[in-house]
Specification:
- This protein is α/β, with parallel strands linked by helices and 289 residues long.
- It has one domain (3-278): Ribokinase (UDP-N-acetylmuramoyl-L-alanine:D-glutamate ligase, 3-Layer(aba) Sandwich).
- Helices cover 39% and strands 22% of the residues.
- It is built from nine helices and eleven strands.
- It has helices at 17-27, 56-69, 84-97, 123-131, 141-148, 159-173, 217-230, 235-251, 270-279; strands at 3-13, 31-42, 52-54, 75-78, 102-105, 110-111, 114-115, 136-137, 177-183, 189-196, 201-208.
- The chain has a nine-stranded mixed β-sheet, sandwiched between helices. Strands 6-7 form a two-stranded antiparallel sheet.
- Helix 3 runs parallel beside helix 4 (123-131), helix 4 packs across helix 5 and helix 7 packs antiparallel against helix 8.
- It binds 3-hydroxy-5-(hydroxymethyl)-2-methylisonicotinaldehyde.
- 3-hydroxy-5-(hydroxymethyl)-2-methylisonicotinaldehyde binds next to strand 1 and helix 7.
Length: 289
């Protein structure tokens, strides 16, 4: 069985970060350890008055205990990190545990052209340094612009822009693969485009562009993508699994837009994800059409 560790906060309510990653990775048949970086009553995007209990001081002691136990991981997945100090500690964790592991960094910090609440303007440069240690990074278009210190182009882009962005992400940040999410060329389709800088090859996969927006869909996408890659899927199969799962989850949440910040009903799409993950490596396509 593959083993992963997911490093991000626990937002107790509001389906994102660890409350998404743990069930998603588990249902894909992956043993999932967690390294919680903070406990919040809810995430920060849509609720007011949330609590925040910082767990930065726990990261190094947990890592040392795992070292003493000889615990190793097939992959390390990182998500929302609340401070520069946490980025430094996670970077040390990757040095200690990442030699034989796939290092998957989701540089969670921004959306819709803006940094999330609580992040200082110099945070993206620190996150860019962490991305250098990754095998693969998964920014949305806003995060990609912040990582590169470029203006956010909004919806005004074409295929050349996306391909250039991916080349700049891998070239400037120094990670071999990058995926950008939320790509829409044709208003009917939405998906993800990836670039493998060693192969000099692009990959893309699109599904239906549903006319709704919910909080937490990035975490649904990235945890399923991390799971598929951990199971040995190539980028073609992994993008399909993650995009299809995310769109299923969004479709199953339509009608709940009045509470968009409660996240998506990804629970109702876990059965399909489990089946798709189970078909990986069997020579079958990752998902029945
Ligand atoms: O979904 C990303 C995320 C994770 N964790 C916390 C957040 C957010 C986005 O707002 O606030 C605490």
């Amino acid at each position: 069985m593959k083993r992963t560790v997911s490093i991000q906060d626990i937002s107790c309510f509001g389906r994102c970060s660890l409350t998404v990653a743990l069930p998603v990775l588990s249902v894909m048949g992956i043993e999932t350890a967690i390294l919680p970086t903070a406990v919040l009553s809810t995430h920060t995007g849509g609720f007011s008055g949330f609590t925040f209990h910082d767990l930065t001081g726990e990261i190094a002691p947990i890592a040392s205990h795992w070292k003493r136990e000889g615990i190793a991981f097939d992959s390390i997945g990182t998500g929302y990190l609340g401070s520069d100090e946490q980025i430094g500690l996670v970077s040390d964790f990757i040095d200690d545990f990442g030699k034989n592991a796939l290092v998957f960094v989701d540089p969670v910090m921004a959306d819709h052209g803006k940094l999330y609440k609580g992040f200082s303007p110099d945070f993206p440069a620190k996150m860019a340094k962490l991305c250098r240690k990754a095998d693969i990074i998964v920014p949305n278009l806003t995060e990609a612009a912040f990582l590169l210190n470029e203006p956010f182009v909004g919806e005004d882009y074409d295929e050349d822009y996306i391909r250039g962005l991916l080349c700049r992400l891998t070239g400037t940040l120094g990670c071999p693969r990058a995926v950008v999410t939320g790509v829409i060329y044709d208003p009917a389709r939405q998906g993800a485009v990836a670039y493998d800088a060693k192969e000099k090859k692009f990959y893309e996969y699109y599904g239906e562009n549903l006319p709704v927006s919910f909080h937490g869909t990035g975490d649904v996408f990235s945890s399923s993508l991390c799971g598929a890659l951990t199971l040995g899927a190539d980028l073609t199969a992994a993008l399909k699994i993650a995009v299809d799962f995310t769109i299923d989850a969004i479709r199953n949440t339509m009608g709940c837009e009045d509470k968009y910040w409660y996240g998506v009903n990804f629970e109702t799409a876990l059965g399909g994800l489990s089946a798709a993950a189970g078909r990986l490596g069997t020579g079958e396509p990752p998902r029945a059409e």
